[in-house]
Specification:
It is a single chain. The protein has 297 residues and is an alpha+beta fold. The chain has 2 domains: 5-164, Jelly Rolls (Sandwich), CATH 2.60.120.10; 172-282, Orthogonal Bundle (Arc Repressor Mutant, subunit A), CATH 1.10.10. The protein contains 10 helices and 11 strands. The strands form 2 sheets. The protein has a 6-stranded antiparallel sheet with strand order 1-2-9-4-7-10, covered by helices on one side. It has a 5-stranded antiparallel sheet with strand order 6-5-8-3-11, with no helix packed on it. A hairpin with a 5-residue loop joins strand 5 and strand 6 (64-70). Helix 7 crosses helix 10 (274-280). It is globular, with a radius of gyration of 19 Å.
Length: 297
């Protein structure tokens, strides 16, 4: 591949609940090539094959954290997180990536202590790292393989990631917090279509709202309310892109019976109205069919 070249594919093999890829690719970047700021609907992992660059996360209150990275390292983008990454001016990076999601993902990442606050990958096991990288390459190079083979490669990728990554330390309290957050995320996934709020989530897992908010933000990097809105709006974005439902019907499908309230919430997350988003996302976008640019506002 020659700078600037990009090769990517999207997965069109149906829905696999436990784990599935969404898109995968490889890119040789030119000096200072930047991507973002943007949000993703799913997890997105980049492994750096050569060169260097900077990965930047931006919190909801505008606080930026920069992570200078080089070949042999990687970074993981979490759903709804605002991120930007820029290739080095003198030694621009080449990376491969896979976007993935499923019911098995969060527990796997929790076992490593990886989170929006701990997104950087370092390898401690060459053999497992090579399994991870070869599985990522297989997704890219064998685009005509069956959906089951693509899903199998995604399992091998996640297995290699978990076995090779240097884990972040997690305390017993952190594990308990993880239990509460897992229960909250499961409840949100099951009930986001209904009119639930943060108080309902806290009550479901047996915590008072204030303590639940503290535990959730420490783990996820955003408040429960911010996450719930973001989750619903990402599901809404999927429906706007993949279905013929009206805007009002999409709103009702994600827990907003009032179309005006839904449109306001959608614009607060995606920067544009639902109708405008639908017009702008008629086709796939390189490095993320599920990408939502963050407006400058």
């Amino acid at each position: 591949m020659r700078p600037h070249e990009i090769d990517f594919s999207t997965f069109e093999g149906g829905v696999f609940t436990d784990l599935m890829p969404y898109q995968y690719g490889r890119e040789v970047c030119t000096p200072a090539h930047a991507f973002g700021p943007a949000r993703r609907s799913h997890y997105l992992f980049h492994y750096i094959l050569s060169g260097a660059g900077v990965f930047t996360t931006t919190s909801e209150n505008g606080e930026r954290t920069d992570y200078p990275l080089r070949a042999g390292e990687g970074f993981l983008i979490f759903p709804t997180e605002i991120t930007t990454y820029v290739a080095d001016m003198d030694d621009p990076w080449e990376y491969i990536w896979v976007e993935f999601d499923g019911a098995q993902v969060k527990s796997a990442l929790d076992s490593l202590g990886m989170s929006a606050a701990n997104p950087v990958y370092h390898s401690q096991n060459d053999e497992a790292r090579n399994t991870m990288v070869s599985s990522m390459r297989a997704l890219i190079e064998h685009r005509d393989a069956s959906p089951f083979e693509h899903v199998a490669d995604t399992y091998r990728f996640l297995d290699g990631l978990v076995r090779s990554a240097v884990p972040y330390r997690t305390s017993a309290a952190g594990k308990l917090h993880g239990y509460y957050v897992d229960a909250a995320l499961e409840f949100i996934a099951e009930r986001y279509r209904t009119n639930i709020g943060v108080e309902d989530i806290a009550r479901h897992i047996g915590l008072n709202r204030s303590y639940f908010g503290k535990v959730f933000k420490e783990s996820m990097g955003v408040s429960p309310q911010q996450f719930l809105i973001g989750y619903r709006m990402e599901k809404a974005a999927d429906l706007l892109k993949l279905s013929a439902l009206s805007v009002a019907e999409v709103g009702r499908s994600v827990g907003y019976p009032n179309q005006l309230h839904f449109s306001r919430a959608f614009k607060s997350v995606h920067g544009v109205s639902p109708r405008a988003w639908r017009r702008e996302h008629a086709g796939n976008v390189a490095e993320g069919a599920e990408i939502t640019p963050v407006s400058s506002r």
